[in-house]
Amino acid sequence: MTTEIVAKKEGSLLTTDITKFEEYLDHLGLPTDNIIAEINERQVIEQNLPGFIASLPDEVKRDARYLSKFVAGAAVGLFDASLNYVWNEVVLSLRQKAVVYGLDMFFDAAVGGGRRELYSTEEDLSGIKDNTLINTCRKLELISDIVYTKLHHILTMRNDIGASHPNTYSINGFELMGWLQTCVKDVLNDKPSESAIQIKSFVDNLKISASVLDEATIKSMERPLADLSLQNTDNLLTSIFGIYTAEKTGNIVRKNIALFTPHIWQKSSDNVKYKLGVMLDGYRNNLHEEKHKLGVEFFTFCDGNRYQSLESRIIALDGHADDLLEARYAWDNFYNEPPHMRKILTFLDTENDIPPERVSKIIKIVLICRIGKGISYNSGVSPSGRPLYDRFLSLLGDENIILALIAMHSNEVRVNLDNKYCQQHMVSVLNLFKENARSERIQEILDYLIKNDKILHKIHNDKTYKELTKNHITWS
Fold it and tell me: What percent of the chain is helix, strand and coil (3-state, nearest 5)?
């Protein structure tokens, strides 16, 4: 069996006498269908390939061994092999774009959860699946949405119609030429977008910063950051979080991150903020104490504690509530209460941010602090703490207002409600509730309590009050 290579007058190559090759395969007992492309399909390549190759710059062709392999495969009719040669080069090119962009940022966007720590070097890129690779390159704007769509189609065809997969579909010459052009011109000869380069430069400069940023510099950074796409802003926030929580990061770098990251946080999506909350949860669950501590700092200076996972918020709020109650009964409570209340409020923007598992406890402790100690000095309430307590209580709607009334009847609260100062403060709280209450019955209950402010400490025994509240409070 011989295969003849015929040099044609245009200088192109076309393999002929393929029938003998197929006869040889048949002689060996091997399949022959859908192995070698038809001669008319190979002629399509022969007619169109020279012009395309000629359009490429010499420096592109000089070391393009993948193109030589592509031509060889196409000449003998092995179109799926030719496609594979080009695709492998695309993968290598996309990996190189990831290296240029920054491996930390690329892996932050490509790998989630506990697996992230397994990826750090260029060699680790081989562990990223092709589909994830092109998806991540699109997210980072290393390729456009249109190029991504094209590459996704090529990858699908490459996977589904390759020689290793049983199929009845054959690549035709025009398809193969189109895919070659997409891979070479849209990927192999393409450069990362201006935004991608800008982000890499920003992160690189941040990592080596040796002095604290001044206000003018931070202001100058806000405009280009505001012009980034939402996806790039999210990616940048994720990368900066990783830098801040890395143990090798220096104090000056962390200080600079703390100064400008709140601007990025405000422009990022809720989705990435919750994602970072899950990452923070992972640090705690995996006993990475230092990383978890640094992550908590990051969320705090970004005013993003409400985006932590429910479990993390429950644990943190429970601890801050305990600290607040301890400060209430400790020495110099007027001064020591507010810092703990501020920490609680960093987790809460709306009523829905209050974990149901801790809402009753927090309401009771805040109520204890808000009605005060029953003394004349500052009416018994911390001057700095009072607006913070009112801010929290103003969040409450009907369901939680009832929980607050139940807390009012608890021994810890009502024991002070025979004091005139505490009565006055409780009435102020009830008036706050009236502003938010939607239910007519709850409005009626609040009015009754305000009207009977002198007996708040024993109103739980009042028959009319019990009748008013029987649908909301179970009395023993």
Answer: 70, 0, 30
Using alpha carbons, list the distances in angstroms from residue 300 to 262, 291, 308, 346. Answer: 10, 14, 10, 7
**CA–CA gap between residue 252 and residue 213 (Å, rounded):** 9
Dump pLDDT digits (tens) for 30-39. 877 767 777 7
Decide if 82 contacts 50 (C-beta within 8 A).
Answer: no
Q: Residue 32: enclosing H or E segment and its boundaries?
A: none
pLDDT of residue 17: 53
What are the DSSP calls for 118-158, one per residue? G--SGGGGGGS-HHHHHHHHHHTTSS-HHHHHHHHHHHHHH
Q: How far apart are CA 243 and CA 202, in angstroms?
A: 13
Q: Where are the alpha helices (DSSP H) in 268-331?
A: 270-285, 289-301, 310-328
Whole-structure pTM over 0.85, yes or no?
Answer: no
For 50-78, give the DSSP string: HHHHHTS-HHHHHT-HHHHHHHHHHHHT-
User: Is residue 78 within 8 Å of residue 86, measured between CB atoms?
Assistant: no
Distant-in-sequence, close-in-space partners of 253: CB < 8 Å, separation ≥ 6? 206, 207, 209, 243
H/E stretch holding 13 reads strand 13-16
Residue with tokens 């562990």: 127
* Of 18, 175, 15, residue with least CA distance to 86: 175
Using the structure block, give the residue that is written with the tokens 């245009």.
10
Which tokens in the block code for residue 134? 């092109």
